Amino acid sequence: MLSRRSLLASAAASGLAVAMPRLAAAQTVGYSQFVNPMIGTGGHGHVYPGASVPFGMIQLSPDTDNARWDACSGYYYDDKTLLGFSHTHLSGTGASDMLDLLVVPAIGEVRIKPGTLADPEGSYRTAMSHDQEHSRPGYYSLVLPESGIRAELTASARAGLHRYTFPEGKDAHLLIDWAHGFRNYDGSATKIIASSIELRENQVLVGSRQVRQWAQGRYIHFAMKLSQPAASMTFYKDDTEITGATTYQGQSLKVALHFGHGLKGPLLVKVGLSAVDIAGALKNLDEDGLGFDFEAMSGQAAAQWDTHLSPIEITTEDIGQRTAFYTALYHAQLAPTLFCDADGRYRGMDKQVHQLEPGKANFSTYSLWDTYRALHPLLTIIDPPHAAAFAQNLIEQGEQSPSGPVIWPLQGVETFCMIGWHSAVVIAEAIHKGLPVDAKRAWALYRQLAFGRNTPGLNAYRGFGYIPCDLEGESVSKTLEYAYDDWAMSHMAQAAGDYMSAAILRERSRNYRNVFDSKTQFCRPRLMSGQWALPFDPRSMGHDSKRWWDYTESNAWQATFLNQHDLYGHIGLFGGDAAFEAKLDALFNAPSDLPPDAPPDMTGMIGQYVHGNEPSHHIAYLYAYCGAHYKTQARIREILKTQYRAAPDGMAGNEDCGQMSAWYILSALGFYPVDPVGGVYVFGSPLFPQARVHLPAGRTLTIRAEGTETKPYIESVTWQGRPWSRSWISHAELMQGGELVFVMSDKPNPAFGFDITDRPPSFQFS
Amino acid sequence: MLSRRSLLASAAASGLAVAMPRLAAAQTVGYSQFVNPMIGTGGHGHVYPGASVPFGMIQLSPDTDNARWDACSGYYYDDKTLLGFSHTHLSGTGASDMLDLLVVPAIGEVRIKPGTLADPEGSYRTAMSHDQEHSRPGYYSLVLPESGIRAELTASARAGLHRYTFPEGKDAHLLIDWAHGFRNYDGSATKIIASSIELRENQVLVGSRQVRQWAQGRYIHFAMKLSQPAASMTFYKDDTEITGATTYQGQSLKVALHFGHGLKGPLLVKVGLSAVDIAGALKNLDEDGLGFDFEAMSGQAAAQWDTHLSPIEITTEDIGQRTAFYTALYHAQLAPTLFCDADGRYRGMDKQVHQLEPGKANFSTYSLWDTYRALHPLLTIIDPPHAAAFAQNLIEQGEQSPSGPVIWPLQGVETFCMIGWHSAVVIAEAIHKGLPVDAKRAWALYRQLAFGRNTPGLNAYRGFGYIPCDLEGESVSKTLEYAYDDWAMSHMAQAAGDYMSAAILRERSRNYRNVFDSKTQFCRPRLMSGQWALPFDPRSMGHDSKRWWDYTESNAWQATFLNQHDLYGHIGLFGGDAAFEAKLDALFNAPSDLPPDAPPDMTGMIGQYVHGNEPSHHIAYLYAYCGAHYKTQARIREILKTQYRAAPDGMAGNEDCGQMSAWYILSALGFYPVDPVGGVYVFGSPLFPQARVHLPAGRTLTIRAEGTETKPYIESVTWQGRPWSRSWISHAELMQGGELVFVMSDKPNPAFGFDITDRPPSFQFS
Q: What is an example of a Pfam family matching this protein (chains A, B) (predicted)?
C-alpha cells in the first residue's frame, strides 16, 4: 500500500491533481464493486446515484425532481418520472441548489416544459423505473422505458460524459434546459439573474449563468461538445422559439439539438463546467485528454474510486455490511468538491477570479456543521493530504470571504447555513494533528471572529455567557456550539503562540454551563433576565415555537448532551457519574415522540437519541466518560445494526456530505472522535473481525475483534500486544500503526474503562 | 439670576461664545474677590497661578520649572527662580506638556539659555519671590526683584496680553523662547519635530511648531504684536545667532527683541495662539477687539469669572472656607479648555483641520479619569450648557479619533492616559439627565468599543470576566473600571433603543465580582489560571511590582471599594451590611503606611483612604448603602475639614483639572454623585449654614443646615418643607429647585437612612 500513499502524497504535492490521481494504482483492490450508490437515494438520505470521481467537480446524475426536501440531490428513489441528466448535485444535504445544465434525451416531438411530478403530461418528463438502472462508482446508466433510450453517464474531475444510445429509426433529439435548477420548496423557480447560450464553430455550445438560489449569486459556465453533429438546433427564450443569432441572452434559455434519423451509433455529449468563465469550461472539458472515449473515462473513474476505497480493508462474511461499509466510504469522498479550473483559476469567496499558486487546489461544498464531527477526522487517518488541503483551503476561503471565517461555503458563496463556525474545528483539528496547516494565518483570521465580531448574538454570548432565547432563535444550540468553537479556536490560538487568547477562549468555552438548568438537568432556553423560559417540555423545539425554535434541529434531550470538549465539567453539572449515566439512560429510553413542528431531520430515533441528525452523533460514546463504557459498546452496536442498511432507504437521515457515512466507518472500525480537536478516539464496538487501515509511510493499523459478530462487548483490549485498559486511544498512537486487538464477549465487562485513569481525557491541551 | 442663566443658554446656542460671554452681567456678584489662585500651587496641587478666562484657550502664567512632577503646571510655589511667562498650562495634572511660547522680560545682556533650578547661573532664569506677586481670576502680576521689571498678565478667550513695566533708564529686551516646553522628568528636552519663526510687516512675529511631548505630535502656532516697536531683533537657531532672512526654521528657535532705552511707558505684548495655522492665530489675537487695553481685558476676564462663580452663593462666617470654596469653583472651570479658532476652524483628533458647524465649539484637556466623578456632575447642575457641550464634543472627538472613543484627549491628540474609557460616563450621565446629547450617535461610536474592539486586555475582560494579572499591568483596577464603563455604556445603549446591548452590558458590568476574593475580602490580582496571585499584601501595588502594578495609583484597600454602580451586589460579596461596614471602618482605621514604590499621587490619607487621588473619592459615601449613613456624615466632614485649606499647599493631591475642587464643592453643598450615570446624589454633611444654587429657568435650590459649623451630623431632613427620610436625592428632584433643609446635630442619628427603603438606589435603570 506504500505506493498508494505515496501516490496520494505526490498528488497532494502537485496540487490540482489532489482530487484526481490519473493512474489506477495496480496495487489497489477493486472495492468499487462493493459500492452501491443507490443506498440513501430513498428514505431521507438525500444522495444522488450518478457519476463522480472522488472529490470531483462534476456530479453527472439523473434528476427526478428539483423542488422538495427529499429531492435535495435532484433524485428521489420513489419518484416515477425523470427530468433528465444534469451535471452538479449535492450529496445528502438538507438544503439544495445546483443541478446545472439539464440534458434531456428524447425522441419525436420536442417538449420544452419540465412539468411536475404530479402533472408530467405534455412535459419532457418521462417515466422511469429502477429495472434497468445501474449505478457504480463513476458510472450510471438507465434505460428509459417510454423511449427505449439508453443513457449512460461518467465523469472525470472537471468534465462529464454522456452516452446516449437511441433506438434505431427514431427521430432523436436532446433538449438542453439552461433554466433548470433547484427550485424553492414552494415550487417557485430557481432565480436566474442572467444567462446566455452561444453556438460556436463545430457546434460547440457554450453558456453562462448567474443563479440566486441557496448560494446567492453563484456563477456557472458550461461548454458542450457532441461526438456527432446535430442536423439543426432550435433555441428558446422563455419557452418561445428564437432565431437569427448565435448568442442568446435571457433568464430562461433552452436549446433543442435535432439529430433526426442521422445518428450512427451512440451519441456522446461531453460537458465541461467552470465557475470562472467559458474559456475555463472549455479547458476543463478537454483536460482529461480522453475525448469521447466513454470506456476509458468510466474505467479511469472506477480506478480512482478503487484507489480511494483501498485505505481500509475489512474482513466480513456479511455482504450487506460490506456493501454498507464501502458505500459509506464512497459517500464519504464525494465532498468537498473540486472548485478550480484546469488552468488554476477559480472563483473565490469574494466572487472574484483568483489564480491558484502551483501545487494548490480550491474546493467547495463544505457541509461543516455536519462534517467536522467525523468526516474530517476520518480523512486525517485515511487521507491526510486531503485533510490538510481542506483545512488550509478553509483558511484561504475565510480570508477571501466578505463575511470572514466560513460557515457553509458553496460555489464561491457563503450560505450561512446552520449555526456556529465549525470550520474552526476542522482547522484546529488539522493543526493539532500535525498536518501542514498555517496556524498563525488561521489564527489571524479567527481571532477577529473570536473577539472582534460585533453582532447581537455574539455580543450576548460574550456578555451574558449565553444567548438569551428572547433575543435570537436557536439560542440554546448556538450557545453550546459557540462554546465548542471557542474550544477549537483556543487550540488555534495556542498553536499560533497567542497563549493568552487561548486561555481566554478555553475559559469561554465553558459557557455551555450557562444554559444548563441543574434543577431539571436539561439545557434550556434562558431569558435575558437570567430566568429559564417557560413553558418547558424537553421534547419541544422551544418555549415559543410560533416565534422561533430554541434548538437547532433538536430538542432539550439532545442539546443537553451537546458537549464534546469538557465532559468532566459537564458531568459535574449533573452531580457526578451516576446522575450523568442515568440521564444518558433516560435519553435512550425516553418515548420517541416529537411535537408536530419537529423538523424532518429528526429521524433514526432510539428513545430521544436521534441518529438521523448530527447533534446526537457523539452521544452514545459519552458513557465512556462516566465509566460505563459497556453501555457505549451496546448502544454503538445497536446503532450500527439498526440505523444503516444496504438499501435505498438504508440511511437513518440525511447523509450530509459524508458525515453519516463517516460515523459508520469510524464506529465500525471501533472508535470515534467525540472531540475532534482533542485528537483522541473513544472506543465503541468494532463491527468486523478484522480491519486493516493503510496509513501514511507504509504503516498499517490492524484492528482485530474475533467473534464480534455475536459478541458486542469488549472484555479487554491489547495494543501492540500489550494490555490496554483505557477506553480510548490517541490519534498519534493510532497513526503509528500496529495491532489493536479487542477481546470481545457476549457479556458486558463493567470494569473495562471504569477507572478514572482509563477514561478519555477531556478539556486538555495535549 | 434668570438673566445669567439665559445669557449662558443663549451663549450656548450661539456656539463659540459658550466659553466667553462678552458681557459682564450686572446681576452677578463679585465672587472673584474670594478666589485665591495660589491655592494648590504648592503641595501636590499642580495648578498654575496665571490668567485665564473660564474654559479659555489661553492660560498665560509664569513658569518656574518645566521638568518635574510637582511642576506639571510649569509653576511650583517653592521654586526660587523664574523662567518667564508662557501661554498654555495644564491645571492640576500628574502628567504634563504645553508651556507654549515663553516670553522672558529682561534688562542688560541677553541670556538665551534657560538654565536649571539647581544651576541658574548665566541663564535667563531670574530670582522670584511671592512678596510682590498677585493673582486673581484673569490677572497675574509679579515684580522681578533682580531687574525691577513689573510683569502683568491677562487673557481673553483666545489671546493673552502681557504688560511689562521696565525700570527707567535700563536697556530693555524680551527673549522669546520658541523651544521652551515641558521637558521629560529626566530633564531631556521637549521634542520639537519642527518649528519656524517669521518676522512680518509692522514687527508682527508669527511662528509654528509641532511638539512630541505627552501629546504626541500636537500643532501650535502663534502670532505676536507689540505695542511699541523694537529697535532691533536677533534670531537664534540652536542658540547661535542667525541673520539674513525673515523666516527661520529649525528645532530650537529663539528671538531677542531689543528695545534699548526707547520704551515710553509699559510695553504691551499680545499673543494669539492656534492649533490650526498662523492665520488662525492672527485672527484669535484680534478677536477680543480690545487691542492693547490691558484694563479692559483684565476687567472683562474678571467679569466673566464673576459670572461663572455666581451660580452658588454660600453663607459662611469662615473666610478660609469661603476662599477655599470659591477657589474650588474657579479651579473647576479652568478645563476643559476651548480648542477652536475664532473662525470656527479647529484641529480634530485626526490631526486634520475641521470647520465647526455654527453654534458649536470644540474643547481639549479632558482629564476624564478624574473629572467624570464630580466635575461633570457639578456642571450638570450649575452649567448645563457646558455640561451638554462637553458630552456632545466627546462624541465628536471619538468619531474623529483614529483610536475611537476618547480617553484623555489633549490638543487634538489622544494621550491614552490612565485606564478605562470614562468619556462613556460623561456622555451617559448627560443623556440620562436629559441634556441635549445625541444618544444614537454616541452609541454608534461606543458600541464598537463595547463589543468589537479586539485587544488582549479587552478580550480577556470579556473572556475571563476579568483581566488576569499575568497578562497586563493594573489588571485589578482595569477590570473594575471597565465594569463601570460597561454600566455607562449600558445606559447609552438603552437610550439609543438597543435594549439587548444594554442588558448585556448591564450584566457584564458585574464583572467586578471576578476580582473579589471573598476569603480575604479584598479585590485582588488574579491569574489566568483563576487563582489569586501571591504574595498578597493589601497595601502593596501588586504581586510583582518589579514587573508592573496590579492597581492604578492605588492598592487593594482602595480598589476593594472601586464600585460605583452595583453597591448592593457589592455588599453581598462581603456577606452583608455588617461585614461591609466593618470593612469600610477598617479602611479608614488601617495604618497609613504605603510601600516604597507607591506613586506620589497617593496622598491625603485617612487610614488607607486616599483623598489625594481619585479612586477614593466616592468611598466615604458608601456607608449610606449599608445603612450607616452617620458614618458617611462624619467622614465627609472630616475630609472637608482636613484635606482642603486656603493655602498654597492646601490641596491634598493633584487638582486634576477640577475634580478635587468639584468634590469639595459638591460635598460642601451636602451631596455627592457616587454613580454619576445613575443620576442620584448621596447626602454627606453640608458645610455651610446656607447655600443657594441658581438653576436654569430661574429656579433656585436652597440648602439650609443651621448650626452645621459645630454639628456635623444629620438628625433629619426636609425637602420642600416635608420630611425626607432618604439619605439621597435624585438629580431630577434637585433640578426642580426648592428647599432642602438639614436638621443638624452634634450626635449621630443612626436611624437616619437606615431603612432599606431610605438607602440610595443602585444598579437601577431609572
A: Glyco_hydro_92
Its pTM stands at 0.88
Q: What is the pLDDT of residues A292-302, one digit of tens each?
A: 999 999 999 99
Q: Kindly state the cell numbers that stand for A511.
A: 459557557
Query: Average pLDDT of A134-155?
Result: 98
Rounded Cα–Cα distance for residues B443 and A459 (Å):
14
- The beta strands (E) that lie in A132-189 are given as 133-136, 139-143, 150-155, 159-165, 172-177
Q: What is the pLDDT of residue B189?
A: 86
Q: Contact at 8 Å (CB) between A657 and A370? A: yes
Residue of A528, A529, A763 to mutate, testing the B interface (most B Cβ within 10 Å of its Cβ): A528
Extract the C-alpha cell encoding B404: 475611537
Which residues does residue B680 pair with via DSSP β-bridges, in sequence order?
Answer: B730
CA distance B511 to chain A (A): 10
Triad B540, B542, B546: Cα angle to 5°: 105
> Does A1 score more than 50 pLDDT?
no
**Stretches in chain B below the pLDDT threshold 50:** 1-26
Q: Which residue shows C-alpha cell 430515533?
A: A605
**Euclidean distance between CA atoms A538 and A561, whole angstroms:** 12
CATH class held by domain A35-309? mainly beta
Q: Was domain B38-309 assigned CATH 3.40.50.2000?
A: no
Q: In B, what residues contact A, Cβ < 8 A?
A: 447-448, 450-454, 456, 458-460, 462-464, 468, 471, 500-501, 503-505, 507-508, 528, 530
Q: Is the pLDDT of residue A115 over 70?
A: yes
Q: How close does chain A come to B60, measured CA to CA in Å?
A: 46
Identify the pLDDT of residue A23: 32
**B463, A528: Cβ pair inside 8 Å?**
no
Using DSSP's 3-state secondary structure scheme, residue A96 falls into: coil
Contacting residues for A343 by C-beta, under 8 A, at least 6 apart: A280, A283
Q: With b meaning 16 or more CB within 10 Å and e meaning fewer, what string describes B489-520?
A: bbbbbbbbebebbbbbbbbbbbbbbbbbbeee
Please check the confidence at residue A14 and state whether its pLDDT lies above 60.
Answer: no
Q: Which CATH number fits domain A313-758: 3.30.450.20, 3.40.50.2300, 3.40.50.300, 3.30.2080.10?
A: 3.30.2080.10
Residue in chain A nearest B511 by alpha carbon: A463
Cβ atoms of A518 and A579 within 8 Å: the answer is no
From first CA to last CA, the distance across chain B in angstroms is 31
> Would you kindly state where each structural domain of chain A is located, as residue ranges?
35-309, 313-758
Roughly what angle, to the nearest 10 degrees, separates helices B375-382 and B659-669? 60
Which among B451, B454, B460 has the least Cβ separation from residue A448? B454
Question: Looking at residue B448, what DSSP letter applies?
Answer: I
Mean predicted confidence (pLDDT) in A296-315: 97
pLDDT tens digits, one per residue of A444-470:
999 999 999 999 999 999 999 999 999
What's the rounded Cα separation, in Å, for the pair B31 and B133? 20
Average pLDDT over residues A105-118: 96
Would the CB atoms of A459 and B450 count as touching at under 8 Å? yes
Task: Provide ipTM, 2 decimals.
Answer: 0.79
Please report residues of A whose CB lies closer than 8 A to that of B448.
Answer: 454
Summarised one tens digit per residue, pLDDT across range A632-691 is 999 999 999 999 999 999 999 999 999 999 999 999 999 999 999 999 999 999 999 999
Q: Is A352 exposed, middle or buried (0-12, 13-18, 19+ CB in 10 A)?
A: exposed
**Rounded Cα gap, residues B131 and A381, in angstroms:** 90
Per-residue model confidence as pLDDT tens digits over B202-256: 999 999 999 999 999 999 999 999 999 999 999 999 999 999 899 999 999 999 9
